Amino acid sequence: MGDGLIRLDADGIVQYASPNGVSAFRRLGEVETLEGRSLAEVTAGLLKDRRMVDETLPLVVTGRMPWRSEIESRGVSLSLRAIPLRDEKHRFGALVLCRDVSELRRRELELVTKDATIREIHHRVKNNLQTVAALLRMQSRRMVSDEAKQGLEQAMRRVATIALVHETLSQGLTQSVDFDELIGRQFRLSAEVASPSQHVRTERAGLFGELPSDFATPLALVINELVTNAVEHGLEGRAGTVWLMADRSTGERGDELLTVTIADDGVGLPEGHTRKV
Predict the structure, then answer these.
(1) What is the number of domains present in the chain?
(2) Could you give the residue ranges of the DSSP H alpha helices within the chain?
(3) Are residues 188 and 230 in the same domain?
(4) Half-sphere exposure of 83 (CA within 13 A, CB side)
(5) Where a domain ends, among 75, 100, 125?
């Protein structure tokens, strides 16, 4: 249905109401006619809970100010916009445009509910993953075999990394991740867990920016593996530094590229070793 039009005089009395305007107000409640009545009084009679009224509503329904307001009743939301009519000396009336925005508000509510549900799912997944990581940590402490203990600790780090991604997603409204905030915590955690008996510094350069969630999880896992490898094999039980560098650029075809570099000041690769990707 199209917009309704209501013409008010200087006192806020309805002089004319289009069929769409009358129909819009009838959906709010029992309204026989609008012409000859105060639009402010009609509106007040339709509102059940006046404590929730927008403070701009009285100025809109009397046509005093060029503002917008909204009223809701019986599950119907009606948007009102006032256009004061003035001559050189004074205001002699106003036009009030009304539009049924019930469907728009319903869709907005659905989106809010959907977002809240998604955040709750991410929150619960994060809690479950943290529980799994804690169980793996407890089990690793009971293991006699060093190889088995290292395997459980590695699994624990991977699970904790995925949990951090879901924790970040549970705090936002979008399906993208502020990867700098996420990896800042994960980078330090990976180095600390992999080096309980040595002093390892972590340094960062560059920004990752916002990344899609389906890209953030595997990237965080890869960084976790490479940092762990740098600490355990590059530094080999001694103090040192691990660097994490990010560089965003644009390729020849205009596509966005992200280059991630992880380096350490350890012993380096064995002589004669061939690098393979």
Answers:
(1) 3
(2) 19-28, 39-46, 57-61, 102-142, 146-169, 179-194, 213-229
(3) yes
(4) 7
(5) 100
Closest CA to 79 of 131, 27, 7, 114: 27
Range of the domain at 71: 4-100
Region at 36 (left for phi over 0; alpha for psi -120 to 50; beta for the rest): left
Give the CATH number of the domain where residue 36 resides.
3.30.450.20
User: Are residues 188 and 162 part of one domain?
Assistant: no
Cβ(160)–Cβ(135) under 8 Å? no
Q: Same domain, yes or no, for 198 and 258?
A: yes
Instruction: Identify the three-state secondary structure at position 187.
Output: helix
Residues 188, 276 within the same domain:
yes
By the 8 A CB rule, do 4 and 99 touch?
A: yes
Among 100, 128, 158, where does a domain finish? Answer: 100
Residues 143 and 239 in one domain: no
Q: What is the DSSP code string of 92-161?
A: EEEEEEEEE-HHHHHHHHHHHHHHHHHHHHHHHHHHHHHHHHHHHHHHHHH---HHHHHHHHHHHHHHHH
Asked if residues 6 and 42 have their Cβ atoms less than 8 Å apart, the reply is no
Residue 178 sits in the same domain as residue 277: yes
Rounded to the nearest integer, the mean pLDDT of the chain is 82
When pLDDT is cut at 50, 70 and 90, the band that residue 6 belongs to is: very high
Question: CB count, 10 Å around CB of 10?
Answer: 15
Instruction: Decide if pLDDT at 277 tops 50.
Output: no
Q: What is the rounded CA–CA span in Å between residue 91 and residue 88?
A: 9
Tell me the per-residue pLDDT of 193-215, one tens digit each, with 9 for 90 and over. Answer: 666 666 788 889 998 888 887 78
Q: Which tokens is 256 given?
A: 């966005």
